[in-house]
């Protein structure tokens, strides 16, 4: 797809400070602006990203770099990487159009959204860019870098749920997937059980250690730090418990799941593993997060109350849990069946 030509901005009057800001934006590549964050991601662990950014910002005299540090330092791990990628696209776009990001106005944000919509991106990815930019300017206002948020009154791009490519497995497909994982090996079986039968996120699963296992009230359970730094304590159903005990064997410490090289399983290892198992099982393409979506959908279809499913998924908002219900359009569950049965009974 052809990228639209950069929009040329007209600057009616430019002060000395504005000139220096524009000159800095033109002469300083975005790569150099983001190099500290790239180095931070390479040299430090997930929990050190915020610390490295803030230490770098303390000695920085560049307002943009300080603003970026203040924004990105609130995130870590995969969320840090996602927000860094989104805001880098925005800063690149600003540089192409000779626009200092800290001088953007509402029309500029509107034009950036239109540019995003012209790219071969999904609706959700476009919306991620807008939300990231809006959050960046919200942080700038909070940190007294700007007086007001230029994205405050810009409408978020619409995301149609029907057009999203959210993968999941039907109960029969998951049964075939689980059987194929059992034949593939102990680690594969345990990973499939943890993601599909307990609903763990792939990053959470890969971070588990043998020490995470405990017993509480007669249940084997896993205690770990989940997404957003929230502590989690989940009971293990019998099939999951058996699969986990096989991979633990006689070990008392170390990573719970090991890859073929004997090291801790990574998210990339898990994705490749899921792809191999899906091909062997002959089911549709599935991702690790698709297995978590399968867990939620199967729970709601089987009659688990929404509140209990929300707790099991560890969602702060029940509306998020509703987005994971991939069988909501199942005609067998349509309310008209129960309503018709109730009203028909009134007529005898």
Question: What would a concise description of this structure say?
Answer:
By secondary structure, the chain is mainly alpha-helical. The protein has 16 helices and 3 strands.
What does this entry look like structurally?
With 348 residues, the protein is mainly alpha-helical. The chain has two domains: 16-161, DNA polymerase, domain 1; 171-332, Intergrase catalytic core (hpI Integrase, Chain A, Orthogonal Bundle). 56% of the residues lie in helices and 5% in strands. The protein is built from 16 helices and three strands. It has helices spanning 16-27, 30-43, 49-58, 63-72, 77-96, 106-117, 123-142, 171-184, 186-196, 202-207, 238-248, 267-281, 288-301, 306-313, 318-323, 335-346; strands spanning 213-216, 219-225, 231-235. The protein has a three-stranded antiparallel beta sheet with strand order 1-2-3, with no helix packed on it. Mean pLDDT is 82; it is low at 4-31 and 36-48.
* Radius of gyration based on Cα positions: 25 Å
Fraction of helical residues: 55-70%
| Number of separate helices | 16
What series of H and E elements makes up the topology? HHHHHHHHHHEEEHHHHHH
Describe the oligomeric state of these chains in a short phrase: single chain
Domain count: the total is: 2
Dominant shape: globular
Could you outline the blueprint of secondary structure elements for this entry?
Blueprint (H helix, E strand, L loop, with lengths): L15 H12 L2 H14 L5 H10 L4 H10 L4 H20 L9 H12 L5 H20 L28 H14 L1 H11 L5 H6 L5 E4 L2 E7 L5 E5 L2 H11 L18 H15 L6 H14 L4 H8 L4 H6 L11 H12 L2
Antiparallel strand pairs: 1-2, 2-3
Helix pairs in contact: 2-3, 2-5, 3-4, 4-7, 5-7, 6-7, 8-9, 8-12, 9-11
């Amino acid at each position: 797809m052809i990228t639209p030509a950069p929009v040329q901005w007209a600057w009616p009057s430019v002060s000395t400070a504005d000139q220096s800001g524009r000159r800095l934006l033109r002469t300083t590549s975005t790569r150099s602006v983001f190099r500290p964050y790239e180095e931070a991601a390479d040299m430090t662990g997930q929990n050190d990203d915020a610390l490295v950014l803030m230490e770098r910002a303390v000695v920085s005299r560049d307002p943009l770099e300080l603003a970026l540090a203040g924004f990105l330092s609130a995130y870590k791990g995969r969320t840090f990487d996602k927000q860094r990628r989104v805001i880098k696209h925005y800063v690149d776009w600003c540089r192409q159009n000779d626009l200092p990001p800290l001088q953007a106005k509402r029309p500029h944000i509107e034009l950036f959204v239109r540019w995003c919509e012209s790219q071969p991106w999904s609706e959700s990815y476009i919306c991620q860019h807008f939300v990231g930019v809006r959050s960046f300017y919200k942080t700038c206002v909070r940190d007294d870098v700007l007086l007001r948020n230029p994205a405050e009154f810009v409408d978020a791009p619409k995301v149609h749920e029907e057009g999203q490519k959210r993968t999941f497995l039907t109960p029969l497909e998951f049964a075939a997937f689980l059987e194929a994982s059992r034949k593939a090996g102990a680690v594969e079986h345990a990973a499939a059980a943890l993601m599909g039968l307990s609903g763990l996120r792939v990053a959470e699963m890969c971070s588990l250690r043998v020490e995470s296992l405990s017993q509480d009230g007669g249940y084997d359970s896993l205690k770990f730090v989940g997404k957003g730094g929230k502590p989690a304590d989940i009971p293990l159903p019998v099939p999951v418990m058996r699969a986990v005990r096989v991979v633990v064997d006689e070990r008392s410490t170390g990573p719970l799941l090991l890859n073929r090289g004997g090291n801790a399983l990574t998210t990339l290892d898990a994705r490749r593993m899921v792809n191999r198992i899906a091909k062997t099982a002959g089911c549709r393409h599935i991702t690790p997060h698709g297995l978590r979506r399968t867990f939620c959908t199967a729970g709601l279809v089987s009659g688990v109350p929404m509140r209990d499913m929300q707790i099991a998924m560890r969602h702060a908002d029940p509306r998020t849990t509703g987005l994971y219900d991939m069988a909501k359009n199942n005609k067998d569950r349509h309310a008209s069946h129960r309503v018709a049965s109730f009203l028909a009974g009134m007529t005898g």
